[in-house]
Amino acid sequence: MTPDTVIDITRQALTIILMLLAPMLGVALISGLLIGMFQAATQINEMTLSFIPKLIAVAVVILLTGSWMLNLIIDFTRRLYDMIPGLLG
User: Fold this and answer.
1) Low pLDDT (below 50) residues in the chain
2) Residue 44: its pLDDT value, please?
3) Which residue, among 10, 5, 7, 22, has the nearest Cα to 68 in the 3D structure?
4) 32: which residues sit within 8 A by CB, 6+ positions away?
5) DSSP labels for 16-80?
6) Could you say which of 15, 55, 57, 74 would form a disulfide bridge with 31 (CB–CB 3.0 to 4.6 Å)?
7) Around Cβ 19, how many Cβ atoms within 10 Å?
8) Is there a contact between 32 and 50 (Cβ–Cβ < 8 Å)?
9) Which pLDDT score is estimated for 45?
10) Per-residue pLDDT at 47
11) What is the pLDDT of residue 78?
């Protein structure tokens, strides 16, 4: 196994991690911004008001994109398993 192979596998893994996290982080960021604007406008500073809607939004995103995320992880793992004979020989 060459250093270039290790770097390529690591790059692919990091790319997949970013692809998996982007929808959840984006929704959490947008919902946090909207909730923050609502709290600033109404002067309500309740911690659960910001936490619960973000939690629900992220859960909805996981429910909607969960199969895509799982397929992405499975495809990456299969590619890694398929590469093992070439890496050892």
Assistant:
1) none
2) 84
3) 22
4) 50, 54
5) HHHHHHHHHHHHHHHHHHHHHHHHHHHT---HHHHHHHHHHHHHHHHHHHHHHHHHHHHHHHHHH
6) 57
7) 13
8) yes
9) 81
10) 78
11) 97
Torsion of CA 18, 67, 77, 83, to 10 degrees: -100
- The reported pLDDT for the residue numbered 71 is 97
Pairwise CA distance, residues 86 & 80, whole Å: 10
Tokens for 88, please give them: 């050892």
Asked whether 2 and 88 are in contact (CB, 8 A), the reply is no
Q: What angle do CA 77, 2, 14 make, to 5 degrees?
A: 40
pTM of the model: 0.79
Convert 40-75 to b/e letters by CB count within 10 Å (16 or more is b). Answer: eeeeeeeeeebeebbeebbeebeeebeeebeeeeee
